[in-house]
Amino acid sequence: MFTLHPQLERDSFFVASLELSQLLLINNALFPWLVLVPRAPEARELIDLQDGARHQLMDEISLVSRCMQSLFAPDKLNIAALGNQVPQLHIHVIARFAKDAAWPHPVWGKGNEPYTDPKPFIDRLKKEFKAS
What is the pTM of this model? Predict the structure, then answer.
């Protein structure tokens, strides 16, 4: 049975349920930052997924990346699967800008500004996914 890791639960808002993954918005308004969490309870690494699920995850990463590009026109998309603090397989998709608070460094540890109201941002994302 799939259960979202408590750290991801605390740090994010649910956006959508995709074929394989839950899509989450990280609660940091400094960066447009989404996370895909495959509903594969034992997966810690990409290689833990069966071929079909791994291919589906890549399709979902592409979908989310295209949506982020369409919404934000970032200078760069950062896509990462680190898992050093949260062992559950999850993929970060972060829109980066040359003028953002962390550029050109990683976003981790470079500030956190929680959303006062994430609903408008989540609604924009959902609308973009329907258009894709």
Answer: 0.95
Would you say 12 and 25 are in contact if contact means Cβ atoms under 8 Å apart?
A: yes
Which run of H or E residues covers position 57?
Answer: helix 51-72
In one letter, which amino acid is 13? F
| Residues in contact with 15: Cβ distance below 8 Å, sequence separation at least 6, in sequence order | 23, 24, 25, 34, 122, 125, 126
**C-alpha–C-alpha distance, residues 108 and 35, integer Å:** 14
- Determine the Cα–Cα distance for residues 108 and 110; give it in Å rounded to an integer: 6
Which structural domains are found in the chain, ordered by start?
Answer: 6-131 (3.30.428.10)
pLDDT tens figures, 64-100: 999 999 999 999 999 999 888 999 999 999 999 999 9
Helix, strand, coil percentages for the chain (3-state, nearest 5): 35, 20, 45
Structural contact between residues 13 and 24, judged by C-beta atoms closer than 8 angstroms: yes
